[in-house]
Write a structure and sequence with these properties.
Number of helices: 6
Largest sheet: 4 strands, mixed
Number of strands: 10
Strand content: 15-25%
Length: 217
């Protein structure tokens, strides 16, 4: 019998795939011919790996926000409703406040606004970094990716997850530079890591921040 926090999906695939989610649940994608006994044997075989993954997610820190707070550029901003601003959203980076007539505490409204901020900021920053580092790209897309912060295609099209707008600026730079480096070297080889470090000396600190707080974005 499978544990309550484990789900099994049978698909027309050759090999089984196992995934541990941040909430500790386990997802199994297995071939159609896989029996319940096959699933149990696989779970027993991977028990230590599953435990290690769960421990990793448990050690992640969650950035705690108050009910009226939003996370932007790695900082907490207090949101205040104001009928004074009909069509504008006023962000004060000094006082770290956001004022708007729109209800930014509504998740759908908030997400739409975050995406617009991300599109404007990341587009500008990517262009600046691309020119400074001599790493040209083709097109830039702001995506709603579930498990990736960024991606680069063989056509040198870059995709960035809109949620990174909640991370500190040095982390956003790291994600953009990471994908720009992929326009030259697609795989994560030693040569790629050397190129990345040469253009982003604090890449390890940025990755450490994502490892620790990425589940808050």
């Amino acid at each position: 019998m499978l544990p309550d926090n484990c789900s099994v999906t049978r698909r027309n695939v050759k090999n089984a795939r196992l995934r541990v989610c941040e909430d500790g649940t386990v997802q199994l994608f297995v071939p159609m011919a896989f029996t319940d006994e096959d699933v149990e044997r696989l779970l027993d075989k991977k028990a230590q790996w599953i435990a290690t993954k769960r421990q990793f997610f448990e050690q992640k820190s969650k950035i705690q926000l108050r009910r009226n707070e939003l996370l932007l550029f790695g900082n907490r901003y207090a949101y205040f409703y104001s009928s004074k601003y009909q069509n504008k959203i006023i962000v004060n980076h000094e006082s770290r406040t956001i004022q708007a007539k729109r209800n930014l505490l509504d998740i759908s409204v908030q997400e739409k606004w975050f995406k617009s901020v991300a599109r404007k900021y990341i587009s500008s920053r990517a262009e600046t970094l691309s020119e400074a580092l001599l790493l040209p790209y083709n097109k830039l897309y702001i995506r709603n990716q579930k498990r990736k912060w960024g991606n680069c295609s063989k056509e040198k099209n870059i995709s960035i997850n809109w949620r990174v707008i909640k991370a500190p600026e040095f982390v956003i730079d790291y994600i953009i530079i990471h994908e720009l480096c992929h326009t030259v070297i697609m795989k994560h080889t030693v040569r790629f890591q050397t190129l990345l470090r040469s253009h982003c000396p604090d890449c390890e600190q940025a990755q450490a921040w994502l490892d620790k707080y990425g589940n808050s974005l």
